[in-house]
């Protein structure tokens, strides 16, 4: 079984106030070309088709043209919605589209929607788990007593997966990690899934699947090598992604469910680039390098430069951000000082604050009150007392 895994199209996105629709259509055209060259059995799209729940009209037109071209190819399209999408808008006419090989799933089903595709070794079962926040999932599956997201997803998988000997693939949009969130590389263009909650899932919950096709994180990366993978976005959507190399994942599964993934890299119409140097160096760089790219310029000059942004724009028409190295260093020093302060004990910080405000030491009664309050809260610096 051979299928292409992509995610996070974000059709209709802006970079600052610049529309990326033309760039996105070019990336989708490259994808169509790769599909024609690779002749996969299926194209898996793991969510975030649009950039917003109510997409722009011109974004809808791009999406419609893309689906029309896919329907003309002999490839099954398996698509779920992500946290940026409106489930109803993306899956409109899905019953009609299914007749043309386009299976679009906007809402999780109980049990999960499943489709079987066949190759010479038998059937592969694809399970669909579109994005819904954990509160909604608990309502759908009647699991309101479950407070841990991993327990919630574990129960969803247990009641959905059929032990029929088929090889199994899960299509899921969410935050999956082998341990903690910090184990995965994130970017500034990814929207928080739940404010004030965990809403991430341990990768081990999905061990029953031979492959988990993930969407949400924008850098191509493995969660579990050979098993659970983010394909990443087709394009760079923030300067935190400047060093990413965008690709699509070509997944090949043998008769035993063993996975091999290769990448086909995409060439952006306009790249996102961070340029660092003096004003003179950036203005006098040779040739037309980066003339059409989106630029964040970081100036290393100590002295003031008159109208640097407007003047740099004559050299780089698509410059979108200007920063100064000295300001970044000052911000870094402030952040380091804040981290150092947060690591100290509250009692010590109170002592310094009282001395600064009053010019003398706090009384023994005041110190005792602060000590009792801190112990009652169970806090020491950014740590808690352990019983």
TrEMBL record:
Transmembrane segments: none annotated. Residues 269-355 form the Nuclease SbcCD subunit D C-terminal domain. Pfam families: Metallophos, SbcD_C. InterPro entries: Calcineurin-like_PHP, DNA_Repair-Maintenance_Comp, Metallo-depent_PP-like, Mre11_N, SbcD, SbcD_C. GO terms for molecular function: exonuclease activity. Keywords: DNA recombination, DNA replication, Endonuclease, Exonuclease, Hydrolase, Nuclease. Residues 1-220 form the Calcineurin-like phosphoesterase domain. Gene3D superfamilies: 3.60.21.10. Heterodimer of SbcC and SbcD. Belongs to the SbcD family. SbcCD cleaves DNA hairpin structures. These structures can inhibit DNA replication and are intermediates in certain DNA recombination reactions. The complex acts as a 3'->5' double strand exonuclease that can open hairpins. It also has a 5' single-strand endonuclease activity. This is Nuclease SbcCD subunit D. The gene is sbcD.
């Amino acid at each position: 079984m051979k299928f292409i895994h992509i995610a996070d199209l974000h059709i209709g996105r802006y970079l600052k106030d610049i529309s990326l629709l033309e760039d996105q259509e070019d990336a989708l055209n490259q994808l169509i070309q790769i599909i024609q060259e690779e002749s996969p059995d299926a194209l898996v799209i793991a969510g975030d088709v649009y950039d917003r729940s109510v997409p722009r009209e011109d974004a809808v037109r791009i999406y419609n043209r893309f689906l029309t071209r896919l329907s003309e190819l002999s490839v099954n399209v398996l698509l779920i919605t992500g946290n940026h999408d409106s489930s109803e808008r993306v899956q409109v006419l899905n019953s009609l589209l299914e007749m043309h090989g386009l299976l679009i799933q906007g809402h999780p089903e109980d049990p999960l929607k499943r489709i079987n595709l066949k190759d010479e070794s038998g059937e592969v079962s694809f399970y669909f788990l579109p994005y819904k926040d954990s509160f909604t999932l608990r309502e759908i599956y009647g699991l309101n007593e479950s407070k841990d997201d991993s327990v919630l997803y574990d129960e969803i998988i247990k009641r959905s997966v059929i032990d029929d000997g088929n090889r199994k693939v899960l299509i899921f949009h969410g935050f999956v990690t082998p341990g903690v969130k910090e184990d995965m590389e994130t970017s500034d263009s990814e929207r928080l899934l739940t404010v004030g909650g965990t809403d991430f899932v341990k990768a081990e919950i999905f061990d029953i699947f031979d492959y988990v096709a993930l969407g949400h994180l924008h850098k191509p990366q493995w969660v579990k090598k050979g098993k659970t993978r983010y394909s990443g976005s087709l394009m760079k959507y923030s300067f935190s992604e400047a060093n990413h190399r965008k690709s699509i994942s070509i997944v090949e599964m043998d008769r035993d469910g063993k996975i091999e993934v290769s990448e086909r890299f995409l060439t952006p119409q306009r790249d996102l680039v961070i340029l660092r140097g003096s004003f003179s160096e950036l203005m006098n760089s040779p040739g037309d390098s980066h003339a059409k790219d989106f630029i964040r310029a970081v100036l290393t000059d100590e002295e003031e430069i008159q109208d640097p942004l407007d003047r740099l724009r004559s050299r780089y028409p698509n410059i979108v951000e200007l920063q100064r190295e000295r300001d970044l260093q000052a911000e870094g020093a402030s952040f380091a000082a804040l981290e150092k302060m947060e690591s100290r004990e509250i009692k010590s910080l109170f002592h310094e604050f009282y001395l600064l405000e009053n010019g003398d030491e706090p009384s023994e009664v005041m110190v005792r009150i602060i000590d009792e309050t801190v112990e009652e809260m169970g806090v020491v610096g950014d740590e808690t007392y352990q019983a």
